[in-house]
């Protein structure tokens, strides 16, 4: 083993200090290298933490967006005969977002910095599509919930592959929410969302936006 000792009277203290720290760090990592479990456990913990941060941050963002979409729909259609059915879905979204508000601090994850934009964009999307009529609102519901359902499915697969026992609670939460979102999508179909004007175009544009929002929210 190579040992370098900084002389007490070294005139290049700053330089020697840096070198000394670098060398001792290298020695320390070398000794960990020869003891793989210590190093790999640290790397593994960091990887898991990053995976969980990504999952919780994007899910919280998505539920905030969904809450605002239904708020926008209710602002336009709340007093029509479709108000109660939209309200029912909105209430479930409120429960979803509240659950992620609890989970973020529990897992020490910060929310996405894009939250203010998703608040505005969600409300604008909900109200804008509702202005096309209840078919427009329901087309928006189909488009959004299809993407979110698929997104939750991918997360379920990821967590199941990772460690089903360790992530039991989170798996149950996501599975329940996935089922709720798919039920919302079915409601959208049942209430003629597919009969909205320019349905295919509308759905594609909304879904591209959702995928973009997911991509961004996972990262920042
Ligand atoms: Fe939701
Ligand atoms: Fe939903």
TrEMBL record:
Fe cation 2 binds at residues 93, 145, 181, 184. The keyword rRNA processing does not apply. Fe cation 1 binds at residues 63, 93, 96, 181. It is a peripheral membrane protein. It catalyses: a 5-methoxy-2-methyl-3-(all-trans-polyprenyl)benzene-1,4-diol + AH2 + O2 = a 3-demethylubiquinol + A + H2O. Its EC number is 1.14.99.60. One of its GO terms (cellular component) is extrinsic component of mitochondrial inner membrane. Its main location: mitochondrion. It is an enzyme of class 1 (oxidoreductase). It comes from the Eukaryota. Pathway: Cofactor biosynthesis; ubiquinone biosynthesis. InterPro entries: Ferritin-like_SF (IPR009078), Ubq_synth_Coq7 (IPR011566). PANTHER family: 5-DEMETHOXYUBIQUINONE HYDROXYLASE, MITOCHONDRIAL (PTHR11237:SF4), COENZYME Q10 BIOSYNTHESIS PROTEIN 7 (PTHR11237). Catalyzes the hydroxylation of 2-polyprenyl-3-methyl-6-methoxy-1,4-benzoquinol (DMQH2) during ubiquinone biosynthesis. Has also a structural role in the COQ enzyme complex, stabilizing other COQ polypeptides. Involved in lifespan determination in a ubiquinone-independent manner. Belongs to the COQ7 family. This is 5-demethoxyubiquinone hydroxylase, mitochondrial. It comes from Clytia hemisphaerica.
């Amino acid at each position: 083993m190579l040992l370098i000792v900084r002389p007490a009277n070294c005139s290049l203290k700053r330089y020697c200090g840096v070198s000394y720290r670098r060398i001792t760090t290298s020695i320390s990592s070398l000794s960990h290298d020869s003891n793989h479990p210590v190093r790999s456990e640290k790397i593994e913990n960091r990887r898991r933490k990053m995976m969980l941060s990504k999952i919780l941050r994007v899910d919280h963002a998505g539920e905030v967006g969904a809450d605002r979409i239904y708020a926008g729909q209710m602002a336009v259609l709340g007093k029509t005969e479709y108000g109660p059915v939209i309200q029912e879905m909105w209430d479930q979204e409120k429960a979803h977002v509240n659950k992620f508000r609890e989970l973020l601090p529990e897992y020490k994850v910060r929310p996405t910095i894009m939250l203010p934009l998703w608040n505005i964009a969600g409300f604008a999307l909900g109200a804008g599509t509702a202005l096309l009529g209840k078919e427009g609102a329901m087309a928006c519901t189909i488009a959004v919930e299809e993407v979110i359902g698929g997104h939750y499915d991918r997360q379920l697969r990821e967590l199941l592959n990772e460690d089903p026992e360790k992530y039991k609670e989170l798996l149950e939460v996501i599975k329940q929410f996935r089922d709720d979102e798919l039920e919302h999508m079915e409601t959208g179909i049942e209430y003629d969302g597919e009969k909205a004007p320019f349905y295919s175009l509308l759905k594609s544009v909304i879904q591209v936006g959702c995928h973009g929002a997911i991509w961004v929210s996972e990262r920042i």
